[in-house]
Amino acid sequence: MSLIVATLASFTAIDLADRLSILAYARLRHAWLAAGALAMGVGIWSMHFIGMLSFSLSIPIGYDLAITCYSLVIAVLVSWFALHVVTGGRLKLVHLLAGGVLMGLGIAGMHYMGMAAMLMNPAIQYDWNLVAASVVIAIAASTAALWLARALRGTDQTHVMLKRMGAACVMGIAIVGMHYTGMAAANFPLGSICGAAANGVKPQWLGAAVISFAFGILIVTLLLSRLDARVAFLARSVARLDDHLDRMRGSSH
Predict the structure, then answer these.
(1) Reduced to 3 states, what is the DSSP secondary structure of residue 23?
(2) What's the whole-number mean pLDDT along residues 20-26?
(3) N or C terminus: fewer CB in 10 A for the chain?
(4) What pLDDT score was predicted for residue 90?
(5) Taking a C-beta distance cutoff of 8 angstroms, is the pair 180, 12 a contact?
(6) What sign for the dihedral angle of Cα 7, 160, 148, 95?
(7) What's the rounded Cα separation, in Å, for the pair 78 and 94?
(8) pLDDT 10s digits, 205-231
(9) Cα 118 from Cα 34, distance rounded (Å)
(10) What helix, strand, coil percent values describe the chain, rounded to 5?
(11) Using CA atoms, how far apart are residues 146 and 126, in angstroms rounded to an integer?
(12) pTM value?
């Protein structure tokens, strides 16, 4: 389930990057940028917590609501930055690398803040080699995501939708790979207690809310993006037809 959500979020981001790159009106572009950041951020964040739900301990588990919300904010901000980078002007190599590093660090920060929401006592002990590996995977995945989203803009390519679906699968696997590498780095000492178990968000409630919210917002955003693109295409076709008819009337006179 976490892989499906990560792949769907990646495809939505790639599709929105193409839509944002052709919007001429600044207000409309900002609105779609915000909507895209929310959809992509919720997708990445949901992937993390769906992955967390597949992890079980022999003790009651919960998540601190405030810290959980902070991790969602980080995911949305990182997504806004990514979409802003790939839909801007010319993407130079230095901008691509800097954007990949910042986005990767943001995704890693979201992951480990989500882990901190468990309020474990004693604290989670991390294998720092695996932590470093998870950060490297996040940066590499983010850099590849930025490049792919930029490269697959435009409909003048052949089999563009198949390419986007393939790229989304690669990005989804990379995002999930970062998460599970980070999970492998976490060691829970014997006798650990989850401080958020009593008053925090229960896993079963979080799971139902996250899965419903993630699929809902990603599918709705994707459908609206495709519908908006179709309406814009029809409007351009009508404008070209009107212009052609005007020229024909002028030549007849």
Answers:
(1) coil
(2) 60
(3) C
(4) 66
(5) no
(6) negative
(7) 18
(8) 666 677 776 777 777 776 776 676 666
(9) 29
(10) 75, 5, 20
(11) 29
(12) 0.76
